[in-house]
Write a structure and sequence with these properties.
Shape: globular
Order of helices and strands: HHHHHEEHHHEEEHEH
Distance between the termini: 40 Å
Number of helices: 10
């Protein structure tokens, strides 16, 4: 059984519980992420959950969907516009209901999947374990802008270790994706989990080191916070350069938000 599938389910349910109690007009609220509304965030998560379901049960349909999306992009349509068109303008509470139902199906499908099974995606193929971990990361990361704009504090759980590990594992990717040389020294990462447990990666070092709350580290690698806005102690040139542009998700290079641009609204 893939524990990450249940982690994905739990994170999806937490976001759903937050939104289930808000007024319908709040779904049109603009977040601090690229001007997306809450509706846009949930549309995005819903569309790629639909694609995730297809990856496991209907690969030809997935490839056809991504081919159509690629053609739309090449014709000048944004992914957000295509998603809205694909979902026939689904918004508000009907969108919320559809998204959580698909999230539950995806969790049900991935829980018993072979962790090493290779699945197609828009980028390189991924193992089922990596695939559902990526869905967890994206739900957690995009959920952040919803929690922020609603002034809510998320109850973090230790399953964010999946996201922290993804961040550590994409150290080299962050540089290679920008066509920059990958530093030889991998920084020692020592994080404190929400439960207080200590998580460590790479060889202990006082020269190249990142230490502090796991939540802050995950926010930086998922680009929901600028390194200046989290309580991480960063030592060494490789660690400092990495944290200034860390990117644990696929796609072209993205810059993190400016300091102070992403925060919980009081």
């Amino acid at each position: 059984m893939l524990d990450q599938a249940e982690d994905f389910r739990a994170e999806s349910r937490g976001l759903h519980a937050l939104l289930d109690g808000v007024a319908d007009d709040r779904f049109r609220t603009q977040t601090q992420f690229k001007g997306w509304t809450i509706d846009t965030v949930i549309q995005h998560l819903h569309f790629f959950n639909i694609a995730a379901e297809l990856a496991l049960v209907d690969e030809p349909a997935l490839l056809a969907l991504f081919a159509e999306l690629k053609a739309a992009r090449e014709a000048g349509e944004t992914t957000i516009a295509y998603t809205d068109r694909y979902l026939k303008g689904l918004r508000g509470r009907p969108l919320l209901d559809a998204w959580i139902a698909t999230s539950e199906r995806v969790a049900d499908l991935f829980a018993p999947a072979d962790p090493k099974a290779r699945l197609k995606w828009a980028g390189p193929d991924m193992s089922a374990r990596s695939f559902i971990t990526a869905r967890l990361m994206e739900t957690w990361a995009h959920g952040q802008e919803v929690y922020d704009i609603l002034g809510a504090e998320r109850e973090e759980r230790d399953y964010i270790r999946n996201i922290a590990m993804l961040g550590v594992n994409t150290f080299g990717w962050t540089f290679a994706n920008r066509k920059e040389p990958v530093p030889e020294a991998k920084p020692y990462v020592r994080l404190t989990a929400p439960s207080g447990e200590i998580w460590e990666w790479n060889e202990p070092s006082e020269v190249e080191r990142i230490e502090g709350p796991a939540v802050g580290f995950c926010q930086v690698v998922a680009q929901t916070r600028n390194i200046a806005d989290v309580d991480l102690k960063v030592t060494g040139p490789a660690a400092t350069t990495w944290m200034a542009k860390a990117q644990c998700f696929a796609g072209p290079p993205n810059d993190p938000p400016a300091s102070g641009a992403r925060r919980r609204v009081s």
